[in-house]
Amino acid sequence: MELKAIEHASTYIIQSQEEEIKRIALELHEGISQNLYSLYTGLEFLQSGINQPDLQGYAKEMSTLLSRTIQEVRLLSVELYPSTLKTLGIFAALKSYIKLFISTFGVIIHVESQGEERELTEHKSLAVFRTCQEALINIAKYADTSEATLSFTWEEKTLKIDIKDKGIGFDLQKAIETNSFKGIAAMKQRMFIVGGDVHLSSGKGKGTNISIVLPIQE
């Protein structure tokens, strides 16, 4: 009974966090980003009317900085909550995120998909997205590798995702005992909430494989 209460509390906390993250992401995209773009276009207009070379050079620098800031805000918004998740589905959202991931971390992710993509609920899509996101960031931080593979397998009732790297790997049992990889627990908890599971295998010098299994039939 006590375990059930803990599980319900964890579910509530994660869902509340996701709602807040979504709100912040939308505010960044639709509010702050739009305001910055309005400032950018206004600065470009003012720049065209400046005759003094020094002031024109300064305005150009400010314009460049503002443009870069707009891009960073947009990228942050995508990381927090990909708008494509609802409109184009989980696979397109992850492909879009992986482009950002590659440009940020320099680790090449090969993306594959087999079978016909099925529609997932927003909760399931977001759980899969966050789990894959956590796995990819762990690769960038700990795997010491230049590439990895993310494979989708769509079956009639199940979605399976394998994320594999050939990096340095780690002692899985030791990591569990010392609680040094809290991200693993977070991935398992997210998938548990939507009825899925995460399996992880690794060994020193053998790379790491993360398998995500999610029932997709309601």
Automatic annotation (TrEMBL):
- Highest taxon in the source lineage: Bacteria
Q: Where is the Histidine kinase/HSP90-like ATPase domain?
A: 126-217
Q: What EC number(s) does its UniProt record assign?
A: 2.7.13.3
Catalysed reaction(s) here are: ATP + protein L-histidine = ADP + protein N-phospho-L-histidine
Q: Which InterPro entries match?
A: HATPase_C_sf (IPR036890), HATPase_dom (IPR003594), Sensor_HK_TwoCompSys (IPR050482), Sig_transdc_His_kin_sub3_dim/P (IPR011712)
Could you list this entry's UniProt keywords, alphabetically sorted: ATP-binding, Kinase, Nucleotide-binding, Phosphoprotein, Transferase, Two-component regulatory system
**Keyword field contains Transport:** no
Annotated signal peptide:
none
Question: Could you tell me which Gene3D superfamilies the record lists for this protein?
Answer: 1.20.5.1930, Histidine kinase-like ATPase, C-terminal domain (3.30.565.10)
Domain annotation Signal transduction histidine kinase subgroup 3 dimerisation and phosphoacceptor: ranges: 22-85
**What is an example of a GO molecular function annotated in this UniProt entry?**
kinase activity
The molecule here is called histidine kinase
